[in-house]
């Protein structure tokens, strides 16, 4: 996997994946930015949510569950008054919707993502970040 990041001026950068997708990252105005894109640490958090959401939906579909929606709401805490201000805790809450979803299957999908499949979350956990998960089934 490869990517490049090009400086766009001020504190704005544009990243491009080897598959050709781009992402703009920028800082807040009080740090020289113009708020043109997500902060780099926000992209890390969104990556964890995307990776884990992909797993949950994939596992549920393999279990023949009729999933119609999956929303991952994330909250993170960072080290205070420290540089680097790394994540210390991340909580992912999955709101899964579908037809006749079995709770045990949703629970299993979330657990498998957390414990076995989500490379991004597991990488952060191994680095000392406390990553927790919860779920609810929405109608």
From TrEMBL:
UniProt xrefs under InterPro entries: KH_dom-like_a/b, OsmC/Ohr_fam, OsmC/Ohrsf
Gene3D superfamilies referenced in this protein's UniProt entry, alphabetically: 2.20.25.10, 3.30.300.20
PANTHER family in UniProt: PROTEIN YHFA
Protein name: OsmC/Ohr family protein
Record organism: Alloalcanivorax venustensis ISO4
């Amino acid at each position: 996997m490869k990517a490049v990041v090009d400086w766009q001026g001020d504190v704005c950068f544009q990243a491009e994946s080897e598959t050709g997708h781009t992402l703009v990252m920028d800082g807040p105005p009080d740090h020289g930015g113009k708020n043109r894109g997500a902060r780099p640490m926000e992209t890390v958090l969104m990556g964890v949510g995307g990776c884990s959401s992909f797993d949950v939906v994939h596992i549920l579909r393999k279990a023949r569950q009729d999933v119609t929606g999956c929303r991952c709401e994330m909250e993170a805490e960072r080290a205070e008054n420290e540089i680097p201000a790394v994540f210390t805790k991340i909580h992912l809450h999955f709101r899964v919707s579908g037809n006749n979803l079995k709770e045990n299957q949703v629970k299993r999908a979330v657990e498998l993502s957390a414990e076995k499949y989500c490379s991004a979350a597991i990488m952060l956990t191994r680095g000392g970040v406390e990553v927790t998960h919860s779920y609810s089934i929405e109608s």
